[in-house]
Design goal:
mainly alpha, three-stranded antiparallel beta sheet, about 70% helix, elongated
Length: about 130
């Protein structure tokens, strides 16, 4: 049955799905996940985040934090000290997301050997020329 006959247009489907896709892209990004994990223990300073996330540049950390703050996942608190002290903290929504990420990580840890074995079996069956080389 075509979409024309269902009364559902491609535009209506995309209008509903696009924001979800956008949110998933944001929270599943390499740096976003690492920032959320690093900041999960409580208020964290910029330099602490920078030291704990291997390979992230200052600029990428700044941009990602700004996007997470814009999305309501991180709060930024500036203390009036010299030099200024800035802390980042997860919001309630981000803590819920962190719990989900933790469950996903736990699942990956429990199943990593199974997945590695499945990959090896698949590769042996479907690409024997690579195994024999």
């Amino acid at each position: 049955m075509s979409q024309r006959n269902t009364g559902v247009t491609v535009q209506a489907v995309n209008a509903h799905a696009c924001p979800v896709r956008e949110v998933l892209d944001r929270v599943s990004g390499k740096w976003s996940v690492q920032i959320l994990v690093a900041a999960a223990q409580g208020p964290t300073r910029f330099t602490e985040l920078e030291r704990s996330i291997e390979g992230i540049s200052r600029r990428m950390l700044t941009l990602t934090l700004r996007n997470l703050e814009r999305d309501g996942l991180v709060t930024r608190t500036v203390y009036p000290t010299v030099p200024p002290k800035v802390e980042y903290e997860l919001t309630t929504a981000a803590r819920e997301l962190h719990e989900t990420l933790q469950r996903l990580t736990d699942w990956a840890e429990r199943n990593r050997v199974y997945i590695a074995e499945s990959r090896a079996a698949y590769d042996t069956e479907h690409q024997p020329e690579l195994v024999d080389a």
